[in-house]
Amino acid sequence: MSFETEQPQVKTPVRKVTLLQMLGFVSVTLFVSTEVAVASAAGVWGLSGLLHLNSVGEIVLAVIVGLPTLYAMVRCGRLAFEAETDPENN
């Protein structure tokens, strides 16, 4: 004897990609990425000046700060794309 019950099929809406959505996605991504890049560059500049780092130290610091900055930019782009193409927002 089986007690399996059939689950009703839920229809998921399809994401549509239009020109205006892509414009919004690119605009949000560029705006936030620019702010994040400027903040990290200012942080590297300030720390390297405060610590009197030479060129190699400044490059190492830039790489250490730059990798999380790059991750934040990519994550922002993904979130902006999901938000702009979400069927519930249209």
Brief description of this entry?
It is built from two helices and no strands. It has helices spanning 19-50, 55-84.
Key features?
elongated, mainly alpha, transmembrane helix, transmembrane, membrane
Overview of the structural elements:
By secondary structure, the protein is mainly alpha-helical. It has a domain at 40-90. 69% of the residues lie in helices and 0% in strands. The protein has helices at 19-50, 55-84. The radius of gyration is 22 Å and the shape is elongated.
Largest sheet: none
- What is the mean predicted local confidence, pLDDT? 91
Strand proportion? under 5%
According to DSSP, the number of beta strands is 0
- Unreliable residue runs: none
In terms of quaternary structure, the protein is single chain
Q: What's the number of helices?
A: 2
Rg, Å, rounded: 22 Å
- Given helix and strand content, the structural type is mainly alpha
Distance between the termini: 46 Å
Helix/strand order, N-terminal first: HH
Question: Could you outline the blueprint of secondary structure elements for this entry?
Answer:
Blueprint: H1 19-50, H2 55-84
Helix pairs in contact: 1-2
